[in-house]
Design brief:
Layout lengths: L1 E2 L9 H7 L3 H4 L4 H4 L7 H16 L3 E7 L2 E2 L5 E2 L2 E10 L5 E10 L1 H42 L3 E6 L4 E5 L1 H6 L10 H4 L8 H11 L3 E10 L8 E13 L5 E10 L1 H36 L6 H23 L5 E2 H13 L6 E4 L4 E2 L1 H20 L9 E11 L2 E11 L12 H8 L7 E7 L2 E9 L1
Parallel strand pairs: 13-15
Antiparallel strand pairs: 1-6, 2-5, 3-4, 5-6, 7-8, 7-11, 9-10, 10-11, 12-14, 15-16, 16-18, 17-18
Length: about 450
């Protein structure tokens, strides 16, 4: 119990025990003399403020947690923590005359609390360590994946485009030279004049990726050797930070030198084959002229045979331009009509989607169109000025098989009569495009011939 001057008037035995004092040592002494504390310390201000609030308000005040060190017998200060309640006693006029201080030593609780916080810090540290370990493992796996991926990969950082990493494929491509830590201009000086450094700088400046398609490049692929020609497919992809600012360039691609060179060899062989086929066709045409002779009675047969050789040659030319992989239907039909009809081809209307045929089918269709066009010019719609021909085609799917259906329709020509006998041309048309589901239907309608051709593609 203290009075208004904070002089200690009474205390129980428990108070003496927790403070380590004798009754005679503190009785009739002011609180801050009996238990001194630096007036500038937080401990002093916190305790003094609580007493002042009780004296001013006449209300109970509590301090849930206060550090207030206690002087020991040897003069040292022991760190202690308390919880205190200050209850006022008033006179008849309501004036505070005394304050009862009830204190609880919570030092052990504070220590336990500190230990708990330390445990939490330790647990958080363990969690961070675990996450870092997992992150390191993921990073290691990612670097190992990039290192061993078949395509070449590299990372350039900073405006000087300095190598931060380059995988095994990239190092092999560049002759196993030192790369990491060097600017690309210093690491690969041979690519400067080829314009690739300029492209990288543009990607870094504009944040726009660059895609290289079978780009020719000269690289020093062996230490000390002269740069060799290679063909690469690659992407220069800008690397962005969280604020969408470019920090570097990611390089990823494949060496396609063997594929490009194989394609070039194949193209050369195809052109050579086509040249030999043309020579063979020229020899066959010469033999035909000798076989038919110059007799005018054989002229029609000789001319028809020459025209068919021409149609076959035109189909070969178209396939050669496509490397004998496929031929586009519209181009194939248009070429055959131009070769067979000349100016009359303008009276033919073509309508259909973009479709491609295999080489064997392309040759067959070219020969069929040639025969139909020749017959139309001689006997059908194109034999008169107002006659016209419509060629339409479409694709369809039956039992997972893709087929093409083509219709040749003549109109505006003379009345059509079925032929009395089938010649070579009719048999060629009837052979169709081949395939299990191929078919040909020829209708000799009075209004004009109609031919429907169907075949697998």
């Amino acid at each position: 119990m203290v009075d208004r001057d904070l002089t200690i008037l009474w205390m129980n035995d428990a108070y003496l025990e927790v403070t380590g004092r004798e009754r005679a040592d503190i009785l009739s002494r002011r609180m801050f003399d009996a238990f001194p504390s630096d007036p500038d310390s937080e401990s002093y201000r916190q305790l003094r403020s609580s007493f002042d609030r009780v004296l001013e308000s006449g209300e109970t005040d509590e301090i849930a947690h206060i550090r207030y060190d206690i002087e020991q017998a040897d003069g040292t200060m022991e760190e202690r923590y308390w919880s205190a309640t200050h209850t006022p006693f008033k006179d008849a006029n309501g004036r505070v005359t005394h304050i009862l201080q009830h204190t609880v030593d919570i030092s052990e609780l504070h220590v336990l609390r500190g230990m708990r916080e330390q445990m939490r810090v330790f647990e958080r540290a363990q969690q961070v360590e675990t996450r870092n370990r997992d992150l390191s493992e993921e990073t290691r796996k990612l670097r190992n994946l990039l290192e061993n991926t078949p395509g070449f990969t590299a990372v350039l950082l900073g405006p000087d485009l300095r190598f931060a990493m380059a995988n095994a494929a990239y190092r092999r491509l560049t002759g196993n030279r030192p790369l990491v830590g060097l600017p690309v201009k210093q690491a690969l000086p041979e690519v400067i004049d080829q314009g690739f450094v300029t492209i990288l700088e543009e990607v870094y400046r504009t944040a726009e990726p660059y895609f290289g398609r079978q780009e020719q490049m000269f690289l020093q692929t062996q230490p000390g050797a002269q740069p060799e020609q290679v063909y690469l497919e690659f992407v220069y992809q800008p690397i962005m930070d969280g604020e969408r600012q470019v920090t570097g360039v990611f390089i990823q691609g494949h060496d396609v030198t063997e594929e490009v060179e194989a394609t070039q060899r194949q193209t050369l062989l195809i052109h050579e084959l086509n040249h030999r086929v043309k020579n063979t066709l020229a020899i066959v045409q010469g033999l035909a002229q000798q076989s038919f002779g110059l007799d005018e009675s054989n002229r029609a047969g000789r001319d028809a045979f020459a025209a068919r050789l021409g149609a076959l040659s035109a189909a070969h030319n178209l396939l050669t331009s496509c490397n004998w992989e496929s031929a586009e239907v519209r181009s194939l039909i248009a070429g055959s009509l131009d070769a067979a009809l000349g100016n009359a081809a303008e009276r033919c209307e073509l309508e259909g989607p973009d479709l491609v045929l295999r080489p064997q089918q392309a040759v067959a269709l070219a020969m069929i169109v040639h025969e139909l066009a020749t017959n139309a010019l001689k006997y059908g719609a194109l034999s008169v000025p107002d006659g016209r021909v419509a060629v339409q085609w479409a694709a369809s799917i039956e039992d997972e098989t893709v087929s093409i259906a083509l219709d040749w329709t003549e109109s505006g020509g003379p009345p059509v009569d079925p032929p009395q006998a089938k010649g070579f041309g009719s048999r060629l048309i009837q052979s169709g495009l081949g395939g299990r589901k191929g078919s040909v239907a020829v209708d000799y309608e009075r209004s004009g011939l109609h031919c429907h051709i169907k075949g697998e593609i």
